[in-house]
């Protein structure tokens, strides 16, 4: 089995956030890999990884980074594969804003899809949706996931209707 999605992070200290992406992809039975790569500490390895991703069969890259958060953008500069950036509130972060803006504010021609701060699960959901555009089996799983989300809200509303207050109106 070869990976379709690559989860990368600046260091293993990002794993508590990025594991949500791995868990979601695992639940969807989408093959993935996980690596630590630093745009600052091993820039040559980052370049080699990014330039080889397409030929290796990687369809989507999820890149998490904190602080200056250059990893997603550097990866995007070297590959035609879609990159989803996960800004991470790290120990050297300015409330996560530095990471958000570093990933979000990419120059024209080098897009990085950006999810919420510490939003690794949403990155994995987006990766699955990208894959689903060309894979009916993944599309079925994405549709089932979305239907499950809707059913949870329907159940919550049913439970809320059972709560009684003197001035609560149920229509």
Task: Describe the fold and architecture.
Catalyzes the conversion of N5-carboxyaminoimidazole ribonucleotide (N5-CAIR) to 4-carboxy-5-aminoimidazole ribonucleotide (CAIR). Keywords: Isomerase, Lyase, Purine biosynthesis. One of its GO terms (biological process) is 'de novo' IMP biosynthetic process. Pathway: Purine metabolism; IMP biosynthesis via de novo pathway; 5-amino-1-(5-phospho-D-ribosyl)imidazole-4-carboxylate from 5-amino-1-(5-phospho-D-ribosyl)imidazole (N5-CAIR route): step 2/2. Substrate binds at residues 11, 14, 41. There is one protein chain. The chain has 171 residues and is of the alpha/beta class. It has one domain: Rossmann fold (3-Layer(aba) Sandwich), CATH 3.40.50. Helices cover 47% and strands 15% of the residues. A five-stranded parallel sheet has the order 2-1-3-4-5, sandwiched between helices. Helix 4 links the parallel strand 4 (83-88) and strand 5.
Give the structure's gist in a few sentences:
It catalyses: 5-carboxyamino-1-(5-phospho-D-ribosyl)imidazole + H(+) = 5-amino-1-(5-phospho-D-ribosyl)imidazole-4-carboxylate. Pathway: Purine metabolism; IMP biosynthesis via de novo pathway; 5-amino-1-(5-phospho-D-ribosyl)imidazole-4-carboxylate from 5-amino-1-(5-phospho-D-ribosyl)imidazole (N5-CAIR route): step 2/2. By secondary structure, the chain is an alpha/beta fold.
């Amino acid at each position: 089995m070869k990976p379709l999605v690559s989860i990368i992070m600046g260091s293993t200290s990002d794993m508590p956030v990025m594991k949500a992406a791995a868990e979601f992809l695992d639940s969807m039975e989408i093959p993935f890999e996980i690596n630590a790569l630093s745009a600052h500490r091993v820039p040559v390895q980052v370049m080699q990884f990014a330039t080889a991703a397409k030929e290796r069969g990687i369809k989507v890259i999820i890149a998490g980074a904190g602080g200056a958060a250059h990893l997603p953008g550097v990866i995007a500069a070297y590959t035609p594969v879609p990159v989803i950036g996960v800004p991470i509130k790290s120990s050297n972060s300015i409330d996560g804003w530095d990471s958000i803006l570093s990933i979000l504010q990419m120059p024209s021609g080098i897009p990085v899809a950006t999810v919420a701060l510490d939003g690794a699960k949403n990155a994995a959901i987006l990766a699955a949706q990208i894959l689903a555009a060309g894979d009916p089996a993944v599309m079925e799983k994405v549709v089932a996931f979305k239907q499950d989300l809707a059913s949870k809200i329907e159940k919550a509303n049913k439970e809320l209707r059972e709560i009684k207050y003197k001035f609560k109106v149920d229509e």
